[in-house]
Amino acid sequence: TGNSSWWSFNPVAPTAMKKVLNHILLQETRKSCERVCVPDQAQLEVLCSGSSGDIRSAVNSLQFFCLPEKELFMAKRRCVAPRERVQRISMKAGPSGGEEDQAIGGKDASLFLFRALGKILHCKRGKQDASVPEPGLPPHLLQHHRHTLLVTPELVVERSHMSGELFSLYLHQNYLDFFSDLEDVDRASQYLSDADLLTADWTSRSLLEPYGSSVACRGLLHSHSHQVSSGFRPLHKPSWFLVNKKYRDNCLAAQSLFRSFGLPPVCLQTQLLPYLAKLSNPMRNQSNVHPGCGPPVSDEMFWKTETRDSDRQGDRGAAGGGGGAEGPSVQSA
Questions:
Q1: Residues 202, 207, 210, 216: what is their CA dihedral angle, to the nearest 10 degrees?
Q2: Which of 42, 91, 125, 140 is buried most, with the most CB atoms less than 10 Å from its CB?
Q3: What is the pLDDT of residues 221-246, one digit of tens each?
Q4: Which cellular component terms (GO) are annotated to the entry (predicted)?
């Protein structure tokens, strides 16, 4: 209707959502005289992260999780030590720290293209803990030392629901705006070239496509020698789409023009059209045109040409006669 309006909200941070859920649990426990099944803090963290910032989904999942029918299930869960349970959840989360376990009423964990590209291009890394010793690298490899990544590149590509090759195209189109050092750009372009080389052969493209996207993503992340400054940067569609559209339009136009030849598209593009282009190049230069096909020659042009030829013959005669003989006189037309 005309009076309706669209409201959008930013995702709620997991820490703020956890405080809200703890407050709801406290109030409901008092009202029900502790007859509800209360999850522990580790399960609450998984529930918060699995809701993807949607507080309504988190409250609904908490409501179903606290049903009395969950008591038997919770008793089995309590048999596991809390520290072991937290370690198990952290192992599922992986190095990203925010990857959610979808076992507890989680929402769809797929990423929009904008967010998926931002996770790779912004190159967010964790801060090094002073108590944890850094890995020892030899002196000639110290420039390759990086802090721990906050994302798993392969998981980001998988959740974007795009092919690895298409995701690499978007990275190749937009990565320059996220670099400030020329040496980092050179290193990133080399990694992108290596990723493109893995999928160059069509016989093994389907097999090596995940490896190509992994090399492209991890190569861009590793090429950042320092943390990228935060801020909004617009993302652009790859130019490959426009080039591919022009290529398909040109193929259709060539097939319609040379339909009588009966050639397949490959022969038409690689044999006939290049041959016709070779034939048309000499016609663009007037000096290569056949005398009968060029513009008419005036008397003045013919007189200059005849005089130039006569002078050359006179020079040859003077050189052959010792320099004393004169060359032939110039005859007019």
A1: -40
A2: 42
A3: 999 887 766 677 888 999 999 999 99
A4: nucleus
- Residues with Cβ within 8 Å of 271's Cβ and at least 6 positions away in sequence, in order, are 263
User: Considering the chain, what is the average pLDDT of its residues?
Assistant: 74
Shared domain check, 275 and 193: no
The two structure tokens encoding residue 114: 């904008």
Q: Which long-range contacts (CB under 8 A, 24 or more apart) does 33-41 make?
A: 35/68, 36/66, 36/68, 37/65, 37/66, 37/67, 37/68, 37/70, 37/71, 37/74, 38/66, 39/65, 39/66, 39/74, 40/82, 40/85
Q: Can you give the residue range of the structural domain that contains 182?
A: 113-126+147-238
Burial classification of residue 39, based on how many CB atoms lie within 10 Å of its CB (0-12 exposed, 13-18 middle, 19 or more buried): buried
Give the pLDDT confidence of 37-86 residue by residue, as tens digits. 777 888 888 888 777 788 888 888 888 877 765 554 444 444 444 444 43
Q: Please name the residue that has the structure tokens 């008419």.
A: 296
**Shared-domain flag, residues 257 and 232:** no
User: 87 in a domain, yes or no?
Assistant: yes
Sign of the C-alpha dihedral computed for residues 125, 130, 131 and 134 taken in this order: positive
- Based on the fold, state whether residues 217 and 119 are members of the same structural domain: yes
- Regarding whether 256 and 232 lie in a shared domain, the answer is no
DSSP code for 69? G
User: CB atoms < 10 A from the CB of 302, how many?
Assistant: 11
pLDDT, one tens digit per residue, over 140-192 is 887 888 888 888 999 999 888 888 899 999 999 999 988 888 999 999 999 99
Residue 325 makes CB contacts below 8 A (sequence gap 6+) with 317, 318
Q: What confidence score (pLDDT) does residue 173 get?
A: 93
312, two tokens: 């050359």
Determine the average pLDDT of the residues in 195-219.
91
Residue 160 CA, chain-centre distance (Å), reads: 12
Residue type, 117: L
How far is residue 127's CA from residue 122's CA, in Å, rounded to a whole number?
A: 15
- Helix boundaries (H) for 199-272: 205-223, 240-257, 265-267
Helix (H, G, I), strand (E, B) or coil at 199: coil
Which residue has tokens 């935060």?
A: 230
